[in-house]
Amino acid sequence: MRRRVRGLKALIHDAVDFTADMVEEGHASIRRNALRVLDVSPELSGPAKLADGVYRASLAITLGSVRGVNHAVRFITDAGLEPVLGRLADEAEPIEMRSDIAGTAAWISDAALGALNGAVGDYLQRSNNPLDLGLSLRFRDRYLDATSGTPELPARLAVYVHGLGTTEWSWCFNAFEAHGDAAQCFGTLLEKDAGLAPLFVRYNSGRRVVENGSLLADALERAFEQRLPQELVLVGHSMGGLVLQSACHQAVERGYGWPSRVSRVFSLGSPHQGAPLEQLGSAAATLLAGIDWPSTRIPGEILRRRSAGMQDLRRGQVLDGDEPARLLPQASYYFVSATITSDPHHPLGWLAGDVLVRVPSASGPARMEPGAHFETSCLGGMVHQELQNHPDVYAVLKRACAGG
């Protein structure tokens, strides 16, 4: 609780500074357009530039005062809140993995935190804001990096990595409707049917995919430093599939042991070849920023500041530069896509995919390594989020993992 209060307070002060920046940018755009019009008249151009200088000085004093007061309030309230925050618990218990807690205060807080990290998580990390989720491994009802020691993990595990703007709870989405039990998810089902205990990943999805891949590679190596698992199955939804791909590549580069135990890798609706919505957002940011009017430059600047994680989805980038991630030679890969139409071959389904990711992009990287063992599945009648807990998707996982 203390960390969240501190983080929220810091974010409010940052929002005041950002608003001042946007006001300054808007006024600058208005001045530039007015001066361009007046430049056609030499008689008016000189006085207009003089007046503009006076106006800029006045605006700078006003906005400087706003920023100064904001920083002073930040300092004073930081000092005043400490005695109060000292009496609060440092962190709440992990959220229950059940679909029937949706709408509760704990669920709203967790969902908002995931969404905030997805939108501006890279900024939270750069500014050391306590709302930065970092990266944690969750086994049962505890985060492994929040304890004094790592518990002994089962020999066979399935690692679940969520997508952009969510937390590990998203694997419980619509659980009761999907399985008739609010506590059932792929993790519990695959443990019961295939003996694979669930290990959930919680991370700041606004950071670059390559950064989260690096953190995940290190976290898994630490978790297995006492004993490597007998078998690892990796399951990623949306961005989570890209993070897993990046983590495997970087772990092999570092000589880590756990990649050798990976038997299967599932990508559920992962934009390996890019996501249309992010591609549209990138084009819109460039277009709006190129038109010098407040009504376009301000929205363009807001779009430009979307998280680095979001921007990586434009091309499905998992490593620095254009380097492709290598697949694990011993692992089988399963790429699952979906369409909003019941018939996966319907033209509308081919065009729209699951609304956020189209079928070709979710069907794997554009270039597959020779000899790679992979399988693609396209399921009809579901949207992007349903890929995390739909019975038809689970049937793919169960069939692939049957018999160990």
Explain this structure:
The protein has helices spanning 2-38, 42-85, 105-126, 175-179, 186-194, 209-223, 239-253, 276-289, 294-304, 308-312, 347-352, 359-362, 391-401; strands at 135-139, 142-143, 156-161, 197-203, 231-237, 262-268, 332-339, 373-380. The radius of gyration is 24 Å and the shape is globular. The protein is α/β, with parallel strands linked by helices. The longest helix has 44 residues, at 42-85. The model has no long low-confidence stretch (mean pLDDT 83). The protein has an eight-stranded mixed β-sheet with strand order 2-1-4-3-5-6-7-8, with helices on both faces. Helix 1 runs antiparallel to helix 2 (42-85) and helix 8 crosses helix 9.
Helix-strand blueprint:
Blueprint: H1 2-38, H2 42-85, H3 105-126, E1 135-139, E2 142-143, E3 156-161, H4 175-179, H5 186-194, E4 197-203, H6 209-223, E5 231-237, H7 239-253, E6 262-268, H8 276-289, H9 294-304, H10 308-312, E7 332-339, H11 347-352, H12 359-362, E8 373-380, H13 391-401
Parallel strand pairs: 3-4, 3-5, 5-6, 6-7, 7-8
Antiparallel strand pairs: 1-2, 1-4
Helix vs. strand class: alpha/beta
In round numbers, the mean pLDDT is: 83
Question: Helical content, roughly?
Answer: 40-55%
- What are the secondary-structure elements, in order, as H or E? HHHEEEHHEHEHEHHHEHHEH
Shape: globular
pLDDT below 50 for ≥5 consecutive residues: which ranges? Answer: none
Strand order of the largest sheet: 2-1-4-3-5-6-7-8
Beta fraction of the residues? 5-15%
Number of distinct beta strands: 8
* Rg from alpha-carbon coordinates: 24 Å
